[in-house]
């Protein structure tokens, strides 16, 4: 009979080429999960050439699995759209609470995007890396708020099922094509009865000034 394997309290995992450092307590927090079984000491786990414990799964998505085990909360970025892939990973690792949390999160996202005839949301995205201002939302809402501000010839509407929603439209303004600043966009939205409901950013170098992407959600 093979002896139980002993694991250190802090260990490194190589998941599909992504290396994570975590604790044994975190990995075994859900004893009914695949990770709980793997790191129970009753199984032998493969190691890579550097001695990291190796799991042949999606390395990028594993961070969401690990963060859920750490906090018991599902925190996904606003632009996240890999629900099918993450659900497949949650099923593989058999983290029951995460499977349930994903279902709830997905349903809440779907309900929030089902807009009534008299209400809606417009998302203002500021891409500082490309120096662009983008608008997402229903076409009629965007035209109502912004068409009178810019020239018709400059209002180029591009149908794009962004973030997985077929009713999502985006209107890009490149530098020089229209002088619409973030402040102007905010003023127009407030003037049409919209309120700022949330915001997020990404690509930060460690402070707010380094943020290269910002997103603001306005709802009426």
From TrEMBL:
Any matching Pfam family: BTB_2
Gene Ontology BP, a term: protein homooligomerization
Domain BTB intervals: 9-110
Entry-linked PANTHER family: GH08630P, POTASSIUM CHANNEL TETRAMERIZATION DOMAIN-CONTAINING
Name of the molecule in the record: BTB/POZ domain-containing protein kctd6
Native source species: Desmophyllum pertusum
